[in-house]
Design goal:
Layout (H helix, E strand, L loop, with lengths): L21 E2 L6 E3 L10 E5 L7 E6 L19 E3 L4 E7 L4 E3 L8 E5 L5 E5 L1 E3 L6 E2 L4 E5 L3 E3 L11 E8 L8 E3 L2 E3 L11 H6 L1
Parallel strand pairs: 1-15, 2-16, 7-13
Antiparallel strand pairs: 3-4, 4-14, 5-12, 6-8, 6-11, 8-9, 9-14, 10-12, 14-15
């Protein structure tokens, strides 16, 4: 999976266009220093944040069922997801089915509010935390799940991936959230070598 073409996988999942998405154009750049997966593979951003897709989608070569959390056999979902920052679980959405090419389909998600009141939402997951729970960076919070909308071409199948939203002002619904696209994850869509003093000294 050195490259993923949009027509080959289920992407742009959280695009429920019954209302326009709202964005904080003045949100400061935020860098997540911890990744949502534990893997030796390169984590790839496969869909960027834009006006019709208020978050980013990430996957990696080898996203798989974890033996420790395998409620269903022979499926390509179940990879553990870990909190990128500490905070309080603001909401948990579960019990939402898999939908194919249905933009209004609701996904499962876990939303964690950090000390600065900004919310990081992890989408297309089976939650393993509860509302009000305190979590630390690196805590296990969910597994990837076939939940919500996946855009799939005929003959294709949904690709396990994690959709992440950064919500600067949470509302009562997706139509009321204010999102930010001005963020990145070190080692995923932001180069980890940027923080290497040797690199900066010798470049």
């Amino acid at each position: 999976m050195d490259s993923i073409e949009p027509q080959q996988w289920g992407g742009q999942a959280r695009t429920r266009q019954s209302c326009p998405f709202h964005f904080d154009q003045n949100a400061p750049f935020h860098l997540y220093m911890s990744k949502p997966f534990i893997t030796s593979q390169q984590i790839k951003r496969v869909t960027d944040c834009n006006s019709g897709h208020p978050g980013k989608d990430f996957t990696f070569d080898g996203a798989h069922w974890s033996n420790a959390y395998m409620p269903y056999p022979n499926m390509d979902f179940g990879t553990p997801v870990y909190a990128m920052e500490p905070g309080t679980v603001l909401w948990v959405q579960e019990g939402k089915p898999l939908c194919i090419n249905d933009p209004k389909c609701e996904p499962n998600s876990v939303a964690i509010q950090s000390a600065d009141r900004v919310v990081t939402e992890y989408v297309h997951v089976t939650p393993w935390v509860k509302k009000g729970q305190q979590v630390n960076t690196g805590d296990f919070i969910a597994t990837l799940a076939p939940s919500g909308n996946f855009n799939v071409q005929p003959g294709g199948k949904p690709l396990p991936h994690l959709h992440i939203n950064r919500i600067t002002t949470p509302g009562n619904s997706v139509c009321e959230h204010i999102f930010s696209c001005n963020w990145a994850i070190v080692g995923a869509d932001f180069p980890s070598w940027y923080f290497n003093p040797f690199h900066h000294h010798h470049r």
